[in-house]
Fold this sequence. Notes:
GO molecular function: DNA-binding transcription factor activity; sequence-specific DNA binding
Domain HTH araC/xylS-type: 193-294
Number of strands: 8
CATH architecture of the largest domain: Sandwich
Pfam families: HTH_18
Number of domains: 2
Strand content: 15-25%
Keywords: DNA-binding, Transcription, Transcription regulation
Distance between the termini: 50 Å
InterPro entries: AraC_XylS_family_regulators, Homeodomain-like_sf, HTH_AraC
Order of helices and strands: EEEEEEEEHHHHHHHHHHHH
Number of helices: 12
CATH superfamily of the largest domain: Jelly Rolls
CATH class of the largest domain: Mainly Beta
Structural class: alpha+beta
Amino acid sequence: MRSVFGGISLDSSDDGRPFGFRYLVVGDARLSVHALSLTGSARATGSVPEIVAVGRVRNGRFGLRYGRHEVDTTQPYLRPPGESEMRMEGACLELVSLDRAAFGDAALRYGVDGLSSIGARASLTGPRSRALGAAWRSASDRVMAITSDAAAFSSDLVRDQLFDRTVRAILGAFPLGDLHETDEGASTPQAVARATAYIDDHIREHVSLPDIADAARLSARGVQYAFRRHLGMTPLAYLRDRRLDAARIDLIASDPAVVSVGDVARTWGFAHLSRFAQAYRDRFGEYPSATIRA
Length: 294
């Protein structure tokens, strides 16, 4: 851990109880998950690097203090920069870490100056609500599952989509500013047509919500409103359906002795094979394994 968080020093308690420490990191320089498991008790001081990070206590006790402010670690929390004191007892901790510059660039495309907001006050570290805290837990579970899956995470499209979804999850769950207002008056069929044409032309590439909004000449919220109004679905649901259609074409044309369902799914950005299979069945009435064998 010291090689990654060199600014933190850890000292085990001398209370005579057994002490153990395990540390795991998965992901890449842009998006990673750090998992720490500790038996016994310890104290630590120092600061995390210049990253954007969200912490979570999976088990045990973990106290985190910035000066006079005690962070509520019973719920997910932003890990702002600055000197902090930590107390751990039988703790299993998880930290989702994003490159600061990459997060800032992505947040700006959603209309939020995330870097000026994050860590401005140590008192603003918790989620906006308990429900949004639960939503972040689901998002962090997804990040851990995909970054731990070497085959899925080797896909450029999967990595780009996961990073974008994680940025959106952080902006939605934590108090980092409000997104642009919805420009409902501009949500014309022509705007939706521009957006769908962009999606269809870039289906093999990573496509984010701001990309679609730019093509439609709307804000991120505006393009979501327009899609719901005119198509009855979100832009990302439309993108998913187009990729499911493309995956079906590939499955029909593939030799199952050479190509697997997982290969096709990852090509089109689907990291979770079980979710891909269910979404595929919902759309086409059969599982992808049946299509490739036909």
